[in-house]
TrEMBL record:
All residue ranges annotated as the Peptidase S9A N-terminal domain in the record: 130-332
Species this chain originates from: Pheucticus melanocephalus
One Pfam assignment: Peptidase_S9_N
Molecular function (Gene Ontology), one example: serine-type endopeptidase activity
InterPro entries to which the protein is assigned, alphabetical: AB_hydrolase_fold (IPR029058), Pept_S9A_N (IPR023302), Peptidase_S9_cat (IPR001375), Peptidase_S9A (IPR002470), Serine_Peptidase_S9A (IPR051543)
Keyword Hydrolase on entry: yes
All copies of domain Peptidase S9 prolyl oligopeptidase catalytic, residue ranges: 530-708
Family named by the database record: Belongs to the peptidase S9A family.
A GO CC term assigned to this protein in UniProt: Golgi apparatus
Gene3D superfamilies to which the protein is assigned, alphabetical: alpha/beta hydrolase (3.40.50.1820), Prolyl oligopeptidase, N-terminal domain (2.130.10.120)
Keyword tags: Hydrolase, Protease, Serine protease
Name of the protein this chain belongs to: Prolyl endopeptidase
Biological role: Serine peptidase whose precise substrate specificity remains unclear. Does not cleave peptides after a arginine or lysine residue. Regulates trans-Golgi network morphology and sorting by regulating the membrane binding of the AP-1 complex. May play a role in the regulation of synaptic vesicle exocytosis.
């Protein structure tokens, strides 16, 4: 699902797909990757480019292979035969699964029709009534609706708006708007468009005026920011990676120049503009390390300046205020500490040794002129076991969103009074989204709160009044019949694992109700708990929804992720088993009414549990699941394999890693036994999870289930449904409402 700084802060474990936090709402895929080389900042001279080398950090370049003298190389005939055989096998499996789907899908026609009608009703009731995010520049407001970008006056109560851009009018009917950036003088607008069948976006630059015109079209662009009125920086995307930053200008003589090249396969490059628009930052991030370069927006043609050279384990993000860099970082001692207000903002006190150490992020500052970490001074540190999820800088204040024990808090730091105000947000809230507001001098901060079963609700914090305002939305029903429960399950090593449960207040005999369990547990990313119409529909029909915040995710900070990745991946499996067992023990459903849902990398834990504890489940639903870890991590020609080693390990160079991955890999551990029914959605054009691996997984799983059924003759023995729906359209990441509805 959005995204940028927020993803950066998901346990402060960087995803390779790190977007600016001011992206419009969207679903963002997060995968990451890793191998050190050199990166270069390219200086500009009239004749040639000069190079300054910097510490490593990189997106995977094109791979070149060489052989030692005397090494035999396979003949072209043998290579081609191997490729052709593999391709024929893939096509055969795909054709077989498509035939199976065409035979079985009519069985669900009636229930599909009923569900679709209900979801459309809920969508019209809630989502369509929610206002799209507004971008305000002085008296002007820009916003996007139904594939069009509009310009309106902020004080116009009549709703008059001018259309600046239409996806359909420009012949991009199958695309949707992903990001909008307005130049400082509002003469230009940059837009990224993305189709459902590709992860690459196209950037369109419009020259605004009485008759807006297309100035330039740039293919394969991910992030972009205006450094000045007519100077745009952007990152080029190739094979799911961003490694090059370009600068292009439009006034006088138009030209484009390569500014930065990142060559370490572990790192992913994106751009961000500080809230006061003083600096554009070039951010190069891996899961565990980051490096930031500053472009002075007053001098956009000067070479970028390094903030702090990359240091293994040091993650940081930059904001700016009054010649001071404000640095959100993991830098400093890992011991827990409590935030104490003093005239110098915060005094840090180490806590008792028996408390478990969670190395949370903290806010520090340093002068622009001397930005090295030796000059970083502490501004604010959260209390123990509190995760800093996101923050927004304003002229005299800083707003922070924090999470503690599953509850959200809003902290407001005043740089004028040197005080911190903490506000507990509604207990039903699980997700928040900051609304973009380019003017850092604004007196109000707007954001939305939601949960899987609560549609987004708009709130505003007023700096003048020092209070939180809940904005009323007419004609949108309020969800009152849903109860939220938070539990802690004790895992195999005694670790307490949080669970968030939703159910209808009016439901009786909860142990007889169907239960849908959700899990992810990878990349330091929190389990997605944003609003979905289908979740609310299930609650209304008496279902129980449970979200298991297992290790490997980012719910409890950096250490929570570390405890569930690489050689700790099995801990996430133990956590999931403990969560489902506890749910049944306390009276939430029972195994024969329990289903497990997971997507992408969440398929590893879900598929592993299906092998080790099939009796806990009746059904499993997977979306584009990663189920063949071992084979994927041994294929270095795949675009993400190198970068994924930081999450899963490197089985090619580490035999222990090879054996460990094999011990939990879903595909490797399928065996004849009584499996739950399984429904999988996959995408023909998925660039992240190879379809071949899913096809082979389904084939092997179905064979194991049939073998078990044929060997046993128990009364009531049943054969599970194992169904694969391969979507010709769609990709691993974004999808439109219509596509999601059909799926």
């Amino acid at each position: 699902c959005c995204a940028g700084l927020r993803n950066l802060l998901q346990g402060l474990s960087f995803s390779a797909e790190y977007y600016s936090k001011h992206n419009p709402p969207q679903t963002v895929c997060r995968y990451s990757k890793i191998a050190p080389k050199k990166c270069h900042i390219l200086g500009w001279s009239k004749s040639t480019c000069t190079h300054r080398t910097a510490p490593p950090g990189s997106i995977l370049p094109c791979r070149f292979f060489s052989c030692k003298e005397g090494t035999k190389v396979l003949s072209k005939r043998k290579q081609n035969t191997s490729i052709v055989t593999s391709d024929l096998l893939h096509k055969s499996l795909l054709k077989s699964e498509q035939k199976n789907w065409n035979n079985i899908s009519p069985t669900y026609k009636a229930v599909t029709k009923r569900i679709k009608e209900k979801l459309e009703e809920l969508h019209n009731m809630y989502t369509l009534n929610s206002r799209s995010p507004r971008i305000r520049f002085g008296e002007n407001v820009y916003f996007e609706e139904n594939g069009c970008i509009f310009l309106a006056k902020a004080d116009d109560g009549k709703g008059n708006a001018k259309i600046l851009f239409s996806v359909e009018d420009l012949g991009f009917s199958d695309a949707f708007i992903q990001r909008i950036r307005i130049s400082p003088d509002q003469r230009y607008m940059a837009i990224s468009l993305k189709s459902e069948n590709s992860e690459e976006a196209t950037c369109i630059i419009m020259k605004l005026g009485n008759l807006p015109v297309v100035e330039k079209v740039i293919p394969s662009v991910l992030s972009f920011e205006w450094a000045a009125n007519d100077v745009l920086y952007y990152t080029a995307q190739k094979n799911l990676k961003c490694q090059n930053v370009f600068r292009t200008t439009f006034t006088y003589q138009e030209h484009t120049k390569l500014v930065y090249t990142e060559q370490d396969a572990r790192f992913f490059v994106d751009l961000y503009c500080t809230k006061d628009r003083r600096f554009l930052t070039i951010n190069s991030n891996s899961k565990t390390t980051s490096e930031v370069w500053l472009v002075d927006c007053r001098h956009p043609f000067e070479s970028p300046a390094l903030v702090q050279a990359r240091t293994t384990g040091l993650i940081y993000h930059i904001e700016h205020r009054k010649d001071q860099l404000y640095i959100l970082t993991t830098y400093g001692e890992p011991a827990e500490y409590k935030a104490i207000l003093t005239d110098n903002y915060i005094h840090r006190i180490n806590l008792d040794d028996y408390w478990r150490s969670y190395r949370n992020s903290k806010l520090m500052k340093a002068p622009v002129a001397s930005s090295g970490k030796e000059n970083w001074q502490l501004v604010y540190a959260p209390e123990r076991k509190t995760k800093l999820v996101d923050f927004e800088m304003f002229s005299d204040d800083c707003i922070m969103f924090l999470k503690n024990a599953g509850l959200l808090y809003l902290n407001v730091i005043s740089f004028v009074s040197h005080s911190v105000q903490s506000i507990k947000l509604p207990t039903w809230a699980c997700e928040f989204e900051l609304e973009s507001h380019p003017e850092h001098t604004t007196s109000t901060c707007y954001f939305q709160l939601s949960s899987p079963v609560h549609p987004p609700k708009r709130f505003a914090y007023s700096f003048k009044e020092n209070n939180l305002i809940e904005e009323a939305v007419q004609e949108v029903p309020i969800i009152t019949n849903c109860h939220t429960t938070r539990l802690l399950a004790k895992s195999k090593d005694e670790t307490l694992v949080p669970i968030t449960v939703f159910h209808n207040k009016n439901s009786k005999e909860l142990h007889r109700r169907p239960l849908l369990v959700h899990v992810y547990g990878a990349y330091g990313i929190d389990l997605n708990m944003s609003f979905k119409e289908e979740k609310l529909m299930l609650i209304e029909e008496g279902w129980i929804l449970a979200y298991c915040h297992v290790r490997g995710g980012g719910e409890q900070g950096l250490s929570w992720h570390r405890d569930g990745c690489q050689h700790n991946k099995l801990k996430g499996l133990y956590d999931l088993r403990a969560c489902i067992t506890l749910l049944h023990q306390v009276g939430f459903s029972q195994p024969k009414h329990t289903a497990l849902a997971a997507a992408s990398a969440g398929g590893v834990l879900a598929g592993a549990l299906c092998n080790t504890d099939p009796a806990l489940l009746r059904a499993m639903v997977l979306q584009a699941p990663f189920v063949d870890v071992l084979n994927t991590m041994t294929k270095t020609h795949l675009p993400l394999t190198i970068e994924e080693q930081e999450e899963w390990g490197n089985p090619l160079e580490d035999e222990k890693c090879m054996k460990y991955i094999k011990s939990y890999c879903p595909y490797q551990n399928i065996k004849p036994q009584c499996y739950p029914s399984v429904f999988i959605t996959a995408y023909e054009n998925d660039e992240r999870v190879p379809l071949t691996g899913i096809l082979q997984y389904v084939q092997k799983l179905r064979k194991a289930a049939l073998d078990h059924a044929s060997r046993t003759s128990k009364k009531g023995n049943w054969i599970p449904n194992i169904i694969l729906d391969v979507q010709a359209n769609g990709s691993h990441c974004d999808s439109s409402w219509e596509h999601s509805l059909n799926e």
